[in-house]
Amino acid sequence: MARTVDPERHQARRLQIIDAALTCFARSGYAGTSTAALCREAGIGSGTFFHYFPTKQSLLLAILAHGTAEAREWFGARGDDDDPLTVIGDWVRHTADEMSDPRLAGFVRAVSAVMGEPAVEAALALDARALQEGLEPWVARAQHAQQVRTDLSARDLTAWLLVVVDGFLGRLATDADFTAAGQRGALLDVVQRLLAP
Description:
Layout: H1 7-28, H2 35-42, H3 46-52, H4 56-76, H5 84-99, H6 104-112, H7 118-144, H8 154-174, H9 180-195
Helix pairs in contact: 1-2, 1-4, 1-6, 4-7, 5-7, 5-9, 6-8, 7-8, 8-9
């Protein structure tokens, strides 16, 4: 008889492994992280690990997919009557708060080391598309309300917002003295200046 699976328990264990992987990848890089180290960090056996993730790359892809799903959920939770400029600002603040996780810089470096892998490139492209599709309608609404500049299309202005945020993340990954907490105010100021009518 097949074993029944508790979906909540299954998801909790999966998230436990993902969280442990973030720690390991940030600390040791992708190549430097073994499945044994992942299992130790997660407090599980190798059989449990391979039940959830058949390979280390599948785990990395799951982390990226989890981030993409969270972005879609974040934008999906905004109401139709929300103020568009407030939504854009809230997204930037939310993103800056996520970047305050001390593991993020190391995780970005770990992903950078395998960016040439087709599956990783595809996952990153999906994430970029989710952000563009989530943010662009709010930029368009803010333009319609004359809250932000209109000399660029909504698509291009959204792309520039993402360039600023991606650049901020890239700097976090390469400069230990550049911290999300220390530079959060500057990020918000740059975004505000970029958007200003």
